[in-house]
Amino acid sequence: MRDLVAQRAPELLERVTELVGEDPFARVEENTRFAQPAIFCASVVGWDALDLHPSAGAGHSLGELAALVAAGVLERDDALRLVVLRGKLMGEARNGSMLALVGASLEDAREIAAEGGVTVANDNAPGQVVLSGSHEALDKTEEVANARKTRVIRLDVAGAFHSPAMEPATVPFRAALDEVEISEPRFPVFSGASAAPFKDVREELAGALTRPVRWRETVIALHEAGAPSFVEVGPGKVLARMGKRILKGVPFETPAEGLIHV
Question: Which of 61, 97, 132, 163 is catalytic?
Fold first, then answer.
């Protein structure tokens, strides 16, 4: 990711290093404080390099800010400052973790979550739902899932993201959102928390910290709104793989993947 940003937008690499206090790419695997700015930079640079003209867009969690930059709703530097703050706030919230349920329906996941005392954080794709909660509650949830013959994968994250545990982060993040300008979108951007186009960007971005990511529904909503195909702009192919499970036979491309190694 760093090579892509350094080659195509060296001023962005300099700016993110200034805001984070060090090069986030050097510590991207350590903490979301570093991962979020690094992924955001790679995503917006990839967007610029591809010269796409979509009918609509969306982003998974952090990706919403990159999508809003692409649509002209947020200026790049404003969004970068928000991302750095978001990563810092979420990185400081060491109040739990997350686990993925493999093969479980959303209904089953909700039942397991309720019994374990955790919440649904991500409805990513058919058979892939992520739960969020305290370490103790996740231990109990894993026992519940095992008893129901549901496979569990504990995620290596340092917080109960997209759950009520993130509430302390919403106040400073919402205050920072008040400081940035919001412009009319060049194309609709769908919120992952509502699976519908953003209406109140500030409120919805702040609220998304504690609300589940309804990615499966968002992809379906984009398709029903007229999107015949999808392009994943950020680093990796995770969203494309999930998309192919959500919408069988619909093209999901990852042209940005080739840019990472330029």
Answer: 61
